[in-house]
Structure formats: structure tokens, C-alpha cells
Amino acid sequence: MKIFINNIISVLVFISFSCENIDVADTKLEFKEKIVVRAELISDSTFAGVLFTRTLPVDEQYDLTKAEIKDAVSYLKINGVQIVPLHYSGNGLYKPLYDLKFFSGSTVELFGHVKGKSVYSKTLIPESSAINNTMREGKYILASVSPKPDEVYGARWLVYSSGNNNLIDAAGEFHSIIGQVNYNSFENIIVRTSDIPENYLSVPYIDRTFIEVYSFDKAYLEYYKSSSNNQIVNNTFTQGGGAVAWNVFGEDVIGLFVGISKGNRIKVN
User: Fold this and answer.
1) Comma-separated ranges of CATH 2.60.40 domains in the chain
2) SS3 (DSSP) at 75
3) What's the CATH code, domain 130-218?
């Protein structure tokens, strides 16, 4: 599964009404362009880059060739010391000149300059989740996780072919994202998947079902709660959306720059 975050773009839309008489209303749609930043920093995986685009008017079909930004200046700072310049590589994507991997426990900052406006974000690369046990509960699967204060968690189900080598199907969304409720407590938390389709709840598929738990920088929780489309991290940034808790900051800047760690898949008995 591609776990690249492609989530919702938020556009400020105001509708103004002016009436010359009681029978006629003239509606005008006002549009303000936003800079959109998107990056997923996946632990132990080659960094795919940072995408810089702009929002398009809501009545215009989304087109990456129109939305992409080609003249951004940006770099990463890893653990406060290592500077990694990013370079335009096409379709709004900015990448290092060499393969770059992030490791759990690292902090990564993004600095950018786009059309006279500054861009900034910071994220933590989380640890792989420590799963204590798993269990079926009706149509879904639960996992007990030992949480960390700066991480939040989501889970998905997966179904494999005979021999557990080829993926047949997997959850297209997270049921929920959950973090440590009491930061002074070391109690485990329970993460659940979305419902498994009926056709996978019987033999032979029920014996080929796995759970996979994802760890996110805690900033992802606020994004998830405020997003109107809580899908697993693979949606397209388009023009729509409401008020979303982004973690990329700057004047007329929105976006998500988030550290992720994908846990091992665990067979569910």
C-alpha cells in the first residue's frame, strides 16, 4: 500500500450576496490562493520528497500542472544540526540530491520560501508501535499498544493469499486515531481497525487476516479529528475541505508534514 499522505486541501471560500430587490440575489464566489505543502516522512524508508502546490478555484478542475510550484526554496534540518537542501524534481516535488532515510526518534524541520512567504513545520519520526496482544471483536480487530507521549496510533486489517505472501485486500481507512489519554499514565491503549468485509470473515480468508499498526507524530491526531475524510493516508489534495488542523505554518500556507512509522503485520488468530 502506498502510504503517502495525500489528504484534503482547505480553501477559504466566502459567498457574498447583494440584492437590488427582494426577488434577485447576485452570488459571488471569492477565492484566495493558498500554498499547500505535503510530505510523509516514513521511518526507515527512502524519503519521497516535499510537494509544493497551490490551491485552485473551486469551480476549476484540479490539474497538477497548474497547481505545482516550481520556484520554491526549501531545506530540511534534521535533529537541529544536519541541513539537507531540497531541489525541484518535477510535478511540484522537491527532493534531496541523494537517497535520504529518517530514523525513529529523529526530529525534522522544514524551512521554505515561496513567493515571498515563509513556510515552516516540524515533526517527530515515531517508533514502531509495541503491540502486546491482538484479538478479534466481531467484524474488526483490536490491538493493545504501549503508547508514547509524542505519538498517536491507527490500525488497519490486511488479507493475504495462501502462504501469506501476496496481499489480496486491505483497509482503505482508519477507524480511529488514538493517543495516550493520560500522559502521566503508562497504561496500554486499544487501537481498532475498521470493519472487515463479510466475505473475509469466513474460511479461508479468516485464517489469512493480519493487523498492522501505524505510529504517527501526535500532530496527526488533530489533523485527523478535523478532517472531513478520515481515510488512510492516500487521498488527493484537491480544492475542497473545511477547517483543518494543519501543522505547516506561514502566511496563506496549509499542509501536513508528518512523521510515520509502519509496524510489522501480525497474524490474527
Assistant:
1) 130-218
2) strand
3) 2.60.40
